[in-house]
Amino acid sequence: MNTSTLSPPHTGLSEQSQFVKGISVGLVAASIGALYTVFARWGIAHGLTSPDLTVLRFGVAGLLMLPVLALAIRRDLAQFTTRWRIWLLVALLAGTPFGLLMFGGLQFAPPSHAAVFPFTAMSVMGMVLGAVVLDDRMTVRRLTGIATVLIGLVLVSGVEASSLTLRASIGDVMFVAAGTLWAGFGIVLRKHRLDPLLATAVISISALLSYVPAYFWYTAGANLVVVEPFVLWIEVLVQGVIAGAGTLYTYSKMVSLLGPSRAAVFPALAPGLAAFMAWPILGHVPVPLEIFGVLLVMTGLIVAVTTSVASARKA
Q1: Cα(170)–Cα(168) distance, rounded to whole angstroms?
Q2: Quick one: pLDDT at residue 162?
Q3: Measuring CA to CA, which of 6, 16, 181, 299 is 20 to 30 A from 218?
Q4: What is the largest CA-CA distance in the chain?
Q5: How does pLDDT run across 262-281, given as a tens digit for each residue?
Q6: At what angle do helices 288-305 and 140-157 cross, to 10 degrees?
Q7: How many angstroms separate the CA atoms of 63 and 208, rounded?
Q8: Does residue 175 contact residue 114 with C-beta atoms inside 8 Å?
Q9: Residue 167, Cβ neighbours under 10 Å: how many?
Q10: Rounded to an integer, what distance in angstroms lies between the CA atom of residue 208 and that of residue 205?
């Protein structure tokens, strides 16, 4: 049995139930994105760095996915030998390059930009690539919804004009590139009907074999040795187990159910949800402007994804 492809959308699920399930998975994906964002800030406040958190995410997820990949190879090796270019493309789009661009961007631009530019690229490029590659129609309703989402993102993140400097623009370009890679990942998943769990395994293990050795070569894991064990194990759970494997799988599954254009809108919920999760964890109380921004994002998301089932068949 070939585990690399998905069953046709109509198999096993009606269009309506497929849509509802896709919405549910999308909300889970956004919640995971918010959770690991908040705990990344928490971990940094307790002595970890962005490379430390990245290696926990890639390393733990890669180890967890080893049995999945091993079983898939045992069952059907041909799916990798005959389609290796597709799997390599998936690893390049959502693996180490994506992580390095996101991390590198934070060296130049403030965190508020990281809450806007990647998600803008995910939404816009997901829609554009969907139209070009998959013939997914760009409707006025979808364009209106995404525009509303982007306005809400700006309000949630608190981006100020004074932060738009030449140095920050370098980071912004990296954020846009990262978001574009992620949008391309969704397109490849849908176009080739890749299995979400197997895609998660390929991406995680490719990062395990590339990023993790480089990290230990340059840092020797110094921070991981000296950080408090409680902090380390919380980050292993959140960054490695929940986010490392969960983010990739839930996004991949959402793409298989909703299509890349509509799926690309859901990550935009993460910054707003993070603002509320930060309240009990970081002590950050959301201000009225943030709350209004979250409401705008949610409104835009509803407008963008609730096209009629009939018009969404190609999505």
Answers
A1: 5
A2: 64
A3: 181
A4: 56
A5: 787 887 787 778 777 777 77
A6: 160
A7: 8
A8: yes
A9: 10
A10: 5
Dig out the tokens for 169 from the structure.
């623009």
Kindly tell me if the per-residue pLDDT of 315 is higher than 70: no
Residues 101-136: pLDDT tens digits? Answer: 887 787 788 776 777 788 778 878 888 888 888 887
Cα 249 to its chain centre, rounded Å, is 10
Q: Identify any residues that bridge with 263 across adjacent strands, giving them in sequence order.
A: none
Question: Residue 140 — pLDDT band, cuts 50, 70, 90?
Answer: confident
The predicted-structure confidence for 192-203, as pLDDT tens digits, reads as follows 988 888 999 999
| pLDDT tens-place string over residues 16-70 | 888 889 889 989 988 888 888 788 878 888 888 888 888 998 899 999 999 999 9
Exposure string over 218-234, b if 16+ CB within 10 A, otherwise e: eeeeebbeebeeebbee
Half-sphere exposure of 259 (CA within 13 A, CB side): 26
3 state SS for 215-236: HHHHHCCHHHHHCCHHHHHHHH
User: Which pair of structure tokens corresponds to residue 246?
Assistant: 């969960």
Helix residue ranges, H only, 46-95: 50-75, 78-81, 84-94
Is residue 285 within 8 Å of residue 259, measured between CB atoms? no
Residue with tokens 């919640």, as numbered in its chain:
31
Hey, is 95 helix, strand or coil? coil
Q: Cβ(151)–Cβ(87) under 8 Å?
A: no
CA distance 202 to 182: 15
Question: In this structure, which amino acid lies at residue 63?
Answer: L
Residue 106's contacts (CB-CB under 8 Å, 6 or more residues apart) are 50, 114, 171
CB 275 within 8 A of CB 286: yes
- Residues listed for the chain: 315
> Mean pLDDT: which of 236-240, 291-295, 296-300 is highest?
236-240
